[in-house]
Amino acid sequence: MFVQVIEGRVSDREGLHRQMDQWMGDLRPGATGFLGSTAGVTDDGYAIAFARFESAAAAKTNSERPEQGRWWAETEKCFAGEVTFTDSEDVETSLGGGSNDAGFVQIMRGSADRDQLHALDAGFEQVAASWRPDLIGGVRVWTGPDSYTEANYFTSEAEAREGEKKEPPSELAAQADNFEKLMANVEYSDLRDPWLY
Question: Tens digits of per-residue pLDDT, 18-75?
């Protein structure tokens, strides 16, 4: 899988939403290899989107379409300043990956030792269904050797906040210290009204 993470400060939130809807209606049919996208704007006006393609080649073919260029020229007007693009084929999914059933998406940015993080993932996935049924999927995009941006998909924000308060099950107790260290440097961005395509 290939993911392009697009982000920047927004001047026209509704306009951006309209542009995303327009892309799905008008440009999506010709976008070979497009798998889906997750986007939204935080309460303080920061937009982030994860565009997922089968491969970097498919994404490149899409970006070179004239209609894609015209669409982006209009979409860019919805931003206040620079828009950044981060491309990666170093992508991992958890619990089946992204979910269009999510009512709330939380973006996490951090850095971690991959082996430690994978050990935590493996332990979590074994107890996820009973401990955190509110968490219904995740996509992690590695943006460097040990840096990542990930999207976690929840049934709703209320259920996610309740889930955060739960004590971890005993089988995860041995990993608690590692988890605390890994989460200490994580930045969170909340998409309370996620746009899921």
Answer: 999 999 999 999 999 999 999 999 999 999 999 999 999 999 999 999 999 999 999 9
Q: Which residue has tokens 């899921």?
A: 196
Buried b (16+ CB within 10 A) or exposed e, 122-131: ebbeeebeeb
1/143 Cα distance (integer angstroms):
14
CA distance 12 to 78: 5
Give the sign of the dihedral formed by CA 89, CA 155, CA 49, CA 186: negative
Closest by CA to 39, choosing from 51, 27, 29, 28, is 51
Distance CA 181, CA 112 (A): 9
Report yes or no: 157 and 103 within 8 Å, Cβ to Cβ.
yes
pTM of the full structure: 0.92
Which strand ranges, in their side-by-side order, compose the sheet holding 195-196? 84-88, 2-9, 46-53, 34-41, 195-196
